[in-house]
Amino acid sequence: MSTVAPPPALATQALVAGYERDLPIVRGVDFQVAAGELVVILGPNGAGKSTLVKAIAGLVPIHSGHAFLAGADITRSPVQEKVRHGLAFVPQTENIFATLSIQENLQLAADILPRRVQAERIAEVCDLFPDLAARRSARAGNLSGGQRQMLAVARALIVKPSVLILDEPSAGLSPKIVGEVFARLKDINAAGITIVLVEQNVKAALAIAHRAVILVEGELRHEGPAATLAEDPIVAQLYLGAAPAGQEEGR
Ligand SMILES: Nc1ncnc2c1ncn2[C@@H]1O[C@H](COP(=O)(O)OP(=O)(O)OP(=O)(O)O)[C@@H](O)[C@H]1O
Ligand SMILES: [Mg+2]
User: What average pLDDT does this structure show over 168-193?
Assistant: First the structure.
């Protein structure tokens, strides 16, 4: 008897996407993420990392090719339907409502759910983020950078996604806080949620990822186990902005 392998949690096939029809930014990307994996997307500024994940999430037009969630074709699905199918996306910017309270931010994220489960889901997420739970009436705009990212992640988790995509959650955070946010992402992944992480913070991201892909000029140029890529000097030099060997300096 043969067993059929489960479909990837998330996949793209020859995906071409961009803001204008005659200007493809993502240029034919085949990308697969297995259930339970934590995969990081690396690459230089302007490579199209945000465009790729926004296209998957339904926020940038897909010109051709396909996106699949657990084997189901979600290429043309509206954003809300993708969320209902288990895809959660934390954008690079404007991922919380700064003028609203923590509670209101969570409630808005829960509005997509049936009314009877909303309070329960908010309570469950608050259990994961006790710091937020303790300050539910605080204005989100008054939170620290790290707490804001935690709130953005908490909002995304309200729907119990199967796949969580985050676009540069470490942006603007101090190294210590990056460590805390990433440790939390690792826990979330260990609890069974597949994670796709777009990052500039190469070292920290490779430390928690299983696998990494490198996007350059809208195309996937390299991929491999995170540990292997982290130690590949050619890759580091060409694509990740590392100093040539021997010229390493702290930043
Ligand atoms: N809203 C937009 N409208 C038109 N073009 C855009 C828009 N956002 C980004 N672009 C263009 O798409 C290309 C890829 O940008 P994208 O933001 O996807 O790169 P990135 O890899 O996420 O870069 P970064 O590391 O700086 O976040 C760039 O040339 C950029 O100018
Ligand atoms: Mg980006």
Answer: 93
pTM over 0.90: yes
CB 54 near ligand 1, within 6 Å: no
Relative orientation angle of helices 102-110 and 145-157, to the nearest 10 degrees:
20
The protein residue with its alpha carbon nearest to ligand 1, atom 5, reads 19
Comparing CA positions, the residue from 105, 109, 173 lying closest to residue 139 is 105
Which residue CA neighbors atom 16 of ligand 1 most closely?
A: 48
**Domains of the chain (ranges, CATH numbers):** 1-86+162-246 (3.40.50.300), 96-160 (no CATH)
Report the distance separating Cα 124 and Cα 245, nearest Å. 47
Give the residue whose CA is nearest to atom 3 of ligand 1.
19
Residue-wise pLDDT tens digits, 235-248: 667 666 655 544 44
| CB-based contact 33:40 (threshold 8 Å) | no
- Evaluate: CB of 43 within 6 angstroms of ligand 1: yes
Per-residue model confidence (pLDDT) at position 240:
60
